[in-house]
Design a protein that fits this description.
This protein is α+β, with helices and mostly antiparallel strands. The protein is 45% helix and 20% strand. The termini are far apart. This is IS200/IS605 family transposase.
Length: 143
């Protein structure tokens, strides 16, 4: 029997980075729903958190799951659920694009802590600043 354990750190933002998730209570409700719904779909969400305009998910994907399908199931269903339950004043949408990177077992605790501390982290740095910093670092490493 094969043993496969692949962790992916997903990040996606709200459409046009609109801060739809503007209260801690709303964010916690959405994160809880994402985790519960994923579990029903046999997707293991290890950690989920975010801020007013984005979401981070650490997911362990199975051999028969693809990054694209997992992302589609989590994002699509959660935006449908948010709108169905009228949790936002305007129509809620996630941005089409997303970021996904594999995480080694040795880095799991670091990524978990990073995801857990999103509220504190984004009180010091915006999502856009963080994104720009990451992309600059990534491009530098690729060259």
């Amino acid at each position: 029997m094969s043993y496969i354990k692949t962790y992916i750190h997903f990040v996606w933002s709200t459409k046009n980075r609109i801060p739809f998730l503007d209260s801690k209570e709303l964010r916690q409700k959405v994160w809880r729903h994402i985790k519960e719904n994923a579990q029903e779909k046999v997707i293991f969400v290890d950690h989920v958190n975010g801020y007013t305009d984005h979401c981070h998910c650490l997911v362990s994907i199975e051999a028969d799951q693809t990054i694209q399908k997992v992302t589609q199931l989590i994002k699509g269903e959660s935006s449908f659920w948010i709108n169905k339950n009228k949790l936002c004043l305007e129509k809620f949408e996630w941005q089409d694009e997303y970021f996904a990177v594999s995480v080694s077992e040795s880095m799991l605790d670091k990524v978990r802590n990073y995801i857990k501390n999103q509220e504190e982290h984004h009180s010091k740095q915006t999502y856009q600043e963080e994104y720009d910093e990451f992309i600059a670092k990534y491009k530098f490493q690729k060259e």
